[in-house]
Write a structure and sequence with these properties.
By secondary structure, the chain is an alpha/beta fold. Helices cover 45% and strands 15% of the residues. The protein has helices at 14-25, 41-51, 63-71, 82-90, 108-116, 126-142, 153-161, 197-200, 210-218, 220-232, 271-279, 293-296, 310-321, 325-341, 347-359, 369-389, and strands at 4-9, 30-36, 55-58, 78-81, 97-100, 120-123, 147-150, 172-179, 240-244, 250-256, 261-265. The longest helix is centred in the C-terminal third of the chain and has 21 residues, at 369-389. The structure holds nicotinamide-adenine-dinucleotide and magnesium ion.
């Protein structure tokens, strides 16, 4: 068997590092053609030394010399940078599978470029499908060899329950996305104003990058996932339910019209869904250890509290409205999370500023990338303006 050739957008992040662990553990299955990092140049240099890709991309031109110094003269890896570098990586002719694992809207262009080049894309970067859902759907239509395989654990669960047959999704009664509820599931809502970034960065079940960890604390993550599921599976958002499941053992469920339900269970380790997306349609022997359900004892479920977690409510509103609203929600959320992590706004400001940004926007259909980028830029400016006006209560 010829190994599958893999390019990773965002190889130095939490998902990227896990993907490389899988490649290292299954050298007969996978080989690396290209890697990319934002600004973590030392880590990228280590990865280049370990995997000898043909191509590596960094965000800024000024980091190329530093990377070259770290790698030494003998390195054969071609070094590129910026938007054009990411596009070259995404469409690299030697690559079978592109893992889209950049965080945020920065992943939109390379994800689209990979699909337009007819690649199979393992999609972790949920912000790209949230913001650019209509464009991603169009790219899949125009490029018959292109394919999207979800990496997000909930969407991987649905994909696995459907055996990869996306057309089956329209025969479902419901998709049920499970949610751990994050670190503040049982915290009293009247104490949310004083939540610190250190508290919000402590996820009870998953180890992930900072942005998604804050999104999990506000439950915006689940709102983004409803939008993601709606585009991935071509299902209206009112057929997608969210169910609290604190143990995070069931990663999501599907329900057929006759009331029969299928669930996917697994460890809370992203190497599960990642290895499935990378090896699809094969399965990797021993990718994760078995779960001893007798040790787990019981699985519990509850309805999410939309009043306590207004970001989830905003996500559901955006999923329902569609078009440009999810992009506005996403951009405002990215700005708010960044500012919360810099202690410039309080936890409760996140939902307030996103809501006000969404209210200030007039819904439009999204037809082109440049138009989407203008909407994204407008939402960022608007949210930043609101943050400037906010009296800083935490610093
Ligand atoms: P992370 O912050 O750990 O890593 C992000 C990667 O993107 C890094 O390699 C970083 O260098 C790169 N990057 C950031 N900004 C960039 C830019 N402007 N240009 C080029 N590269 C840039 O994030 P993560 O936790 O690995 O998450 C990646 C994506 O996967 C996110 O969209 C997240 O929502 C999704 N996801 C993550 C997990 C998880 O367990 N971490 C689970 C499900 C979905
Ligand atoms: Mg998820």
């Amino acid at each position: 068997m010829k190994p599958k050739t893999i390019g990773i957008l965002g190889s130095t992040g939490s998902i990227g590092v896990n993907a490389l662990k899988i490649v290292a553990s299954y050298p007969d299955y996978f080989t690396i053609t290209s890697l990319s990092a934002g600004r973590q140049i030392e880590r990228l240099a280590e990865q280049i030394r370990a995997f000898s890709p043909q191509l590596a991309c960094v965000e800024r031109a000024e980091d190329i010399d530093r990377l070259r110094d770290l790698l030494g003269q003998e390195s054969r890896t071609e070094l590129v940078h910026g938007t054009s570098g990411l596009a070259a990586l995404a469409a690299h002719p030697s690559t079978d599978l592109v893992i889209s694992a950049i965080v945020g809207f920065a992943g939109v262009r390379p994800t689209l470029a990979a699909l337009q080049a007819g690649k199979c894309v393992a999609l972790a970067n949920k912000e790209s499908i949230v913001a650019a859902g209509p464009l991603i759907r169009e790219a899949l239509k125009q490029s018959p060899n292109a394919r999207l395989i979800p990496v997000d654990s909930e969407h991987s669960a649905v994909f696995q329950a459907l055996h990869g047959d996306l057309a089956q999704a329209k025969t479902l009664k419901r998709i049920i996305l499970t949610a751990s509820g994050g670190p503040f599931r049982d915290r009293a809502a009247d104490s949310f104003a004083s939540i610190t970034k250190e508290e919000a960065l402590k996820h009870p079940n998953w180890s992930m990058g900072a942005k998604i960890t804050i999104d999990s604390a506000t439950m915006m993550n689940k709102g983004l996932e409803v939008i993601e599921a709606s585009y991935l599976f071509s299902v209206p958002s009112d057929q997608i339910a969210v169910l609290l499941h604190p143990e995070s053992i069931i990663h999501s469920m599907i329900e057929y019209r006759d009331g029969s339900m299928l669930a996917q269970l697994g460890q809370t380790d992203m190497r599960g869904p990642l290895s499935y997306a990378m090896a699809y349609p094969a399965r990797l022997d021993g990718a994760l250890p078995s779960i001893d359900l007798s040790q787990v004892g019981k699985l519990t479920f509850a309805e999410p509290d939309l009043k306590k977690f207004p970001c989830l409510a905003l996500g559901l509103t955006a999923a329902q409205a569609g078009h440009s609203i999810p992009a506005v929600l996403n951009a405002a959320n990215e700005v708010c999370v960044e500012n919360f992590l810099e202690n410039r706004i309080a936890f409760n400001d996140i939902a307030r500023i996103i809501a006000q940004t969404m209210e200030a926007h007039t819904l439009t259909a999204v037809a082109e990338l440049e138009q989407l980028c203008a909407i994204d830029a407008w939402a960022r400016r608007t949210a930043r303006g609101m943050i400037e006006e906010t009296t800083c209560r935490v610093c």
